[in-house]
């Protein structure tokens, strides 16, 4: 019993560290030959940040779980579904120049949809403020529909299930119209993360074994695998449509005349044809190129704080728009990399964005805080059956998923506002578990 509970406690951090190790392995041994001369500082920094994340998680996950007095999950699903449809029909023509019923046209040519989206953003610059604000304010509701719906699926009537599925459809349609992948990736992360919470709850409170859980939810697991395959296929198609040739080269400009290109003759690609090698190389670039940007950032001299704005591009853009002062962002690590590794087009992990405000030596300290909230949200979501904590856990899971690429949660304001809102709901509705349900989760577990 104690062994199983301890395994449940540590499951998320083990998955995150395993994922991190896998992406780092792809970076070191994959199809790109990265010209790095500061391997010691890069690997040492990554080791320190992951250790801090692990320590923060382990410190809080073993403490007493808290339930919640929040019982309004049905209202959240209803309001979130209504908001998702209103935002879709209002935002789609402004952001993409298309109406939702034109989704099949966009699906047939994802590359054209993406380019139309970029052109439309230029045409409507300065006009999207009210729509963007409405999306930000409603995103806490829209985002929570999927995790709350999965957690309470067995309690929901058919019309409520339809609203949940319609909300997912609205997000998918928006993603297809834009020709972007972020929305689909977030849906996959939230679906997997909620499934993880649900399985852990069943195991912790009902004593179900992994085999029994797999047998009970086999259909859902198979459906999830199929959806993942479709998403990967769509991702590959979209990327192929954006490239004229199958060559994948990163960097390369007047400052770095030598491009960093994927080696299509890499041993990993021995059994793949050219299109498959392209897709595999693109995936390797997405998961690994951020470490190269981090290595470049670590080589920069001199910390110049951006005073809390450098971690969030939208916040810095708002500051520049209001003040006309762009000197503050020019102090950042990410801006100073532009000559060699553009922060507008390339990844550099989430760490330089945090370091813009607090410096690289302070990043491991910050990761202690991230790890502690991550662990506390998992603890309450599973052992306290706390739905607010479960929603917060989804945001941190997205953060961990994008860790090798960027600071996804603060990249756009909707995720950040929704995270802060649900942290407030979580903290304001917490109540200690009355019975010693998780007494076995103390530090001796």
Mind sketching the topology for me?
Blueprint: H1 2-29, H2 39-61, E1 66-68, H3 73-96, H4 103-108, H5 110-123, H6 129-151, H7 158-178, H8 182-206, H9 210-216, H10 218-242, E2 249-250, E3 260-261, H11 274-298, H12 313-323, H13 327-330, H14 333-336, H15 351-358, H16 363-383, H17 387-402, H18 408-411, H19 413-429, E4 430-432
Antiparallel strand pairs: 1-4, 2-3
Gross morphology: globular
The overall average pLDDT, rounded, is 87
Number of strands: 4
Measured by DSSP, the beta-strand proportion falls in: under 5%
H/E element order: HHEHHHHHHHHEEHHHHHHHHHE
Radius of gyration: 22 Å
Read across the widest sheet, the strand sequence of neighbours is 1-4
Class computed from helices, strands and strand pairing: mainly alpha
State the low-pLDDT regions, or none: 434-445
Beginning-to-end CA distance, first to last residue: 10 Å
